[in-house]
Design a protein that fits this description.
The chain is of the alpha/beta class. It has helices at 13-25, 37-46, 63-72, 90-99, 111-123, 128-145, 149-162, 166-178, 182-195, 200-213, 216-232, 236-249, 254-267, 270-283, 288-300, 304-317, 322-333, 336-339; strands spanning 5-9, 30-34, 51-55, 81-85, 103-106. Among the domains are: 5-126, Rossmann fold; 268-341, Tetratricopeptide repeat domain (Serine Threonine Protein Phosphatase 5, Tetratricopeptide repeat). It is 68% helix and 7% strand. A five-stranded parallel sheet has the order 2-1-3-4-5, with helices on both faces. α8 packs antiparallel against α9 and α8 (166-178) runs parallel beside α10 (200-213).
């Protein structure tokens, strides 16, 4: 099917105008330009397009982030989507392929190349490099599912020789864990988290590998990191599961009780939050941040007198605790309701 409507996205007005002019020169007239990923997403909520071409690097929302949003929507799931960049790294090629990109266009734009890319749409084609890597990746996952670990390992190691990917290293770590080769598994998980600092699955898997090795401290550290990522993303149920896993490894872990307290407070379960904070205080009664968190909880409960007690104690043990001082001042001034808004 020949495309008729285009959405072009770039936060550089010169590049956007250049791309707009080229698409028109190829003889396509129905074009909506967008100067940011957010503007493009607003247009996509109202309209459908036959083709989307967007810059990878944009300030408000990257082209990759926009692609991931688009692929989650049924009406846009199969819309041809091209990403543009001045220099695609091997990692970017993998990330784009896994997110469902149709093709990649290197800047500066070349009229002949752009024409050929758009012609792909009529033939329902994806870039061959992306297709080959996707196929091998899926083959590797199928081999893991079939417990053919040695064959799967060879495939993922071959893929890494061509281009690095956090997902590839994660799967190597999974295989090594299944083979009880825990140091090698941890090395692979570490590489995965270096490539993607928010790769929560890799942090969890690394923590479990450390547990199997008997290294409780490192296990707790990795699992706490995973829980924090879940909380940052608003995935409270997943965070709670990981933190409870930490408690099974080491019931006296200070950070777990404090983190659970934060989690339950955000969920509105103030009773459970207070229970967790008080457990943390039993282990470290002079820890300023836990004292502050208890005070913050009492603010939510509108018990400002009790809140003040804990803020004062936090300042006692850390006289430079600016945030505790500011909250205490807000309570005294009667402006606490607006302080946390």
């Amino acid at each position: 099917m020949k495309p008729h409507t285009f959405l072009l996205v770039d936060d550089n007005p010169l590049t956007l105008n250049e791309l707009n002019g080229l698409v028109k020169y190829i003889n396509y007239e129905k074009i909506d330009p967008a100067s940011s990923g957010n503007q493009a997403w607003s247009l996509l909520k109202k309209h459908t397009y036959d083709c989307i071409i967007t810059s990878w690097e944009m300030q408000e929302m990257t082209g990759l982030a926009l692609l991931k949003l688009v692929r989650k929507e049924d009406k846009h799931h199969d819309t041809p989507f091209f990403l543009t960049h001045s220099a695609f790294t091997k990692l970017k090629v993998i990330q784009a392929g896994q997110a469902g990109v149709t093709g990649l266009i290197v800047r500066p734009f070349d009229l002949e190349t752009l024409t050929l890319k758009i012609e792909q749409i009529s033939r329902g084609m994806k870039d061959l490099e992306i297709l080959n890597k996707e196929k091998k990746y899926q083959e590797g996952l199928a081999l893991i599912e079939a417990k053919q670990y040695d064959t799967a390992l060879g495939l993922f190691e071959d893929l890494i020789k061509k281009s690095e990917s956090a997902e590839y290293y994660y799967n190597i770590g999974f295989i090594k864990t299944s083979q009880a080769k825990y140091p090698e598994a941890i090395a692979a998980f570490q590489k995965a988290t270096q490539l993607d600092h928010l790769f929560v699955k890799a942090f969890q898997a690394m923590g479990r590998a450390y547990t199997l090795m008997g290294n409780k401290n490192e296990a707790v550290r990795c699992l706490n990191r995973a829980a924090n990522i879940h909380m940052e993303k608003g995935e409270m149920e997943s965070a709670e599961e990981v933190l409870n896993e930490v408690l099974l490894i080491n019931p006296d872990t200070l950070n777990v009780f404090n983190s659970l307290g934060v989690l339950y407070r955000k969920k509105g379960n103030f009773k459970k939050a207070l229970e967790q904070y008080l457990k943390a205080l039993k282990i470290h009664p002079k820890e300023p941040h836990i004292l502050y968190n208890v005070g913050r909880l009492y603010v939510d409960l509108k018990d400002f007198e009790k809140a003040k007690i804990f803020f004062i104690r936090a300042i006692k043990y850390n006289p430079d605790f600016k945030e505790a001082k500011d909250v205490l001042k807000a309570i005294d001034l009667g402006s606490i309701d607006s302080y946390f808004k």
